[in-house]
Amino acid sequence: QLQLVESGGGLVQPGGSLRLSCAASGSALGDYTVAWFRQAPGKEREGVSCISSGGGSRNYAGTVKGRFTISRDNAKNTVYLQMNSLKPEDTAVYSCAAANGLCVLWPWDYNNWGQGTQVTVSS
Asked: I need a labelling partner for 83 at 20 to 30 A (CA). Which of 28, 37, 40, 117 fits?
């Protein structure tokens, strides 16, 4: 059974950077497409980015394109989300999710989820 654990969240000032990690256990993460989602209080869950199992396909939400970069190290069973030029509107709980499917940003396509990590962007 695939289990996912996120880390790397925290408090950062506007314009700062964070790198989130999504570490897997119980199965080879390299067999899965992995996505990052976020949810702010009172808002719907939003797809942020995804990466295919081999890393050849990556997608980004328009709100983060050019600022966030998704990558993976299948040898370490980990997917990363590098977040630069952070804005207050990036504040949310960030969760990673995995599925055997295409790299899409629809949450209903993913059936393995982590618990999430809080990212707060504030001065």
From this structure: 28
Other C-beta atoms within 10 Å of 76: how many? Answer: 12
CA triple 102-108-111, angle to 5 deg: 80
CB crowding 30-43: b at 16 or more within 10 Å, else e = bebbbbbbbeeeee
The pLDDT tens digits of the residues spanning 6-33 come to 999 999 999 999 999 999 999 999 999 9
From start to end of the chain, where are the E strands? 3-7, 10-12, 18-25, 33-39, 46-51, 58-60, 68-73, 78-83, 92-99, 112-113, 117-121
Tally the residues of the chain: 123
Residue type, 121: V
